[in-house]
């Protein structure tokens, strides 16, 4: 059995068709012996997407093998570049997690100020409400964040504190990253 090597997916169908024609086999006969529909064989010969298992069945009937190789051998320089890129991505992710933790801590401190009725808490909340109004007026923030922050900032300060402490974990990082609260003054 011969092997089809080093060709793109678009060329496999053409090679299988050429092999079928060379052996003077009809599409119907090959499809029937392979256990696939004739339309599948037509798609395959045109280089269109078909299941790999169907292509392998057709190849087997024609006496050829389709080898699939996953992965590519990369030279030393490319390995080093890939490793360097991977390390940079890990570092960026670590820095992002650290920024999220800082924002989370800052908001926990704010929630504590709101809960305890700190003398600056009301002004912080009022400034945040104005910022959300500015976001809406200038269309500089997602309507989702505007609506969520309006809900969070509404009502007495202890209620605001409770809502900050109970942010949905799925949305908390995004909400805290897009915060109207001045967290840098803590």
Distinct helical segment count? 9
Assembly state: single chain
Characterize the largest beta sheet: strand count, sense, and whether it forms a barrel.
Answer: 2 strands, parallel
Helix coverage percent of residues?
A: 55-70%
Number-wise, the strands total 2
List segments where confidence is low: pLDDT < 50 over at least 5 consecutive residues. Answer: 72-77
Q: Would you list the SSEs in sequence order as H and E?
A: EHHHHEHHHHH
Radius of gyration: 31 Å
The main sheet orders its strands as: 1-2
Distance between the termini: 74 Å
Strand content: under 5%
* Class by alpha and beta content: mainly alpha
Mean pLDDT: 85
Outline type: elongated
List the helices and strands and how they pair.
Elements: E1 2-4, H1 9-22, H2 27-34, H3 38-45, H4 52-62, E2 64-66, H5 76-116, H6 121-138, H7 143-153, H8 157-165, H9 172-177
Parallel strand pairs: 1-2
Helix pairs in contact: 1-4, 2-3, 2-4, 5-8, 6-7
């Amino acid at each position: 059995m011969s092997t089809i090597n080093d060709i793109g997916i678009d060329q496999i169908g053409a090679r299988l068709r050429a092999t079928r024609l060379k052996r003077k086999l009809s599409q119907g006969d090959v499809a029937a012996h392979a256990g696939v529909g004739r339309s599948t064989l037509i798609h395959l010969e045109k280089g269109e997407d078909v299941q790999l298992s169907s292509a392998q069945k057709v190849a087997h009937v024609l006496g050829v093998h389709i080898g699939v190789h996953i992965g590519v051998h990369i030279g030393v320089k490319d390995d080093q570049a890939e490793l360097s890129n991977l390390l940079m991505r890990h570092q960026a992710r670590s820095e992002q997690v650290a920024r999220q933790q800082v924002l989370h801590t800052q908001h926990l401190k704010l929630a504590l100020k709101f809960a305890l009725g700190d003398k600056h808490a009301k002004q912080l909340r009022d400034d945040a409400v104005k910022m959300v109004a500015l976001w809406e007026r200038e269309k500089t923030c997602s309507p989702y964040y505007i609506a969520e922050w309006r809900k969070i900032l509404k009502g007495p300060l202890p209620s605001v504190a409770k809502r900050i402490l109970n942010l949905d974990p799925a949305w908390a990082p995004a909400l805290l990253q897009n915060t109207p609260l001045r967290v840098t003054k803590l």
